[in-house]
């Protein structure tokens, strides 16, 4: 039958299937392999799998180039003397002021009294609040599956266990407040400000941030996601 393909017909079809195309989009493999010899070795070792064109990284197709990083020296006016280096607690106290922690101690006592009808014993003091925040700072650095393991006999962690008992810590954690919730209409406050229970903390941190110096003239852009144009407004 005339519809049956013999060997000669198949060879003729294969020979005529090669079409000349536009080589403008092709990559110069000679220059590429000189710059990236590792791709040449990997492609030659995989016989019958991928051609050299298949091993070209996407960075080359996108027009990216591998260049050494040349940093620029900082201007002299950008280098500032940090002054006296303070302790971590001194920096913390600039945001969580003594006045704020004293208010927390007072309102925690008021909340416990309103909830239970008796006074918390011993009365929550400024030192208790400082220890409470210090324990949370340490807990953020060490990892226990459960907080109660810190006070257990087998896994006891003395820097925390010696500073405050387990019952005292969880008592403060359950009753800690920074506003007197009994002196206001909670429904009305919730309507005006959903963060009214922690508003003193927000105000203290914001006030400290507003006091930080802002020296214009030198900026650093980190993880730029969109085109950035520096100029004056």
UniProtKB/TrEMBL annotation:
<dbReference type="InterPro" id="IPR029526">
    <property type="entry name" value="PGBD"/>
</dbReference>
<feature type="compositionally biased region" description="Acidic residues">
    <location>
        <begin position="46"/>
        <end position="55"/>
    </location>
</feature>
<dbReference type="Pfam" id="PF13843">
    <property type="entry name" value="DDE_Tnp_1_7"/>
</dbReference>
<feature type="compositionally biased region" description="Acidic residues">
    <location>
        <begin position="17"/>
        <end position="37"/>
    </location>
</feature>
<feature type="domain" description="PiggyBac transposable element-derived protein">
    <location>
        <begin position="87"/>
        <end position="229"/>
    </location>
</feature>
<protein>
    <submittedName>
        <fullName>PiggyBac transposable element-derived protein 3</fullName>
    </submittedName>
</protein>
<feature type="region of interest" description="Disordered">
    <location>
        <begin position="1"/>
        <end position="56"/>
    </location>
</feature>
């Amino acid at each position: 039958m005339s519809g049956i393909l013999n060997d000669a017909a198949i060879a003729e079809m294969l020979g005529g299937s090669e079409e000349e195309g536009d080589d403008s989009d092709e990559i110069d493999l000679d220059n590429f392999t000189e710059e990236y010899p590792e791709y040449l070795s990997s492609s030659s070792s995989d016989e019958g799998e991928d051609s050299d064109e298949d091993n070209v990284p996407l960075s080359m197709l996108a027009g990216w180039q591998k260049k050494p990083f040349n940093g620029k020296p900082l201007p002299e006016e950008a280098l500032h003397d940090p002054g006296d280096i303070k302790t971590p607690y001194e920096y913390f106290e600039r945001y969580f002021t003594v006045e704020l922690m004293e208010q927390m101690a007072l309102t925690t006592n008021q909340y416990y009294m309103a909830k239970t009808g008796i006074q918390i014993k011993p009365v929550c003091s400024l030192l208790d609040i400082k220890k409470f925040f210090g324990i949370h700072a340490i807990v953020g650095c060490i990892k226990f599956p459960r907080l109660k393991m810190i006070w257990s006999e087998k896994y006891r962690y003395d820097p925390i266990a010696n500073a405050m008992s387990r019952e005292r810590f969880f008592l403060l954690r359950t009753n800690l407040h920074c506003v007197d919730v009994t002196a206001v209409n909670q429904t009305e406050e919730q309507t005006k400000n959903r963060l009214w229970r922690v508003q003193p903390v927000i105000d203290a941190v914001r006030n400290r941030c507003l006091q930080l110096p802002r020296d214009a003239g030198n900026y650093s852009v980190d993880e730029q996601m969109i085109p950035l144009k520096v100029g004056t407004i």
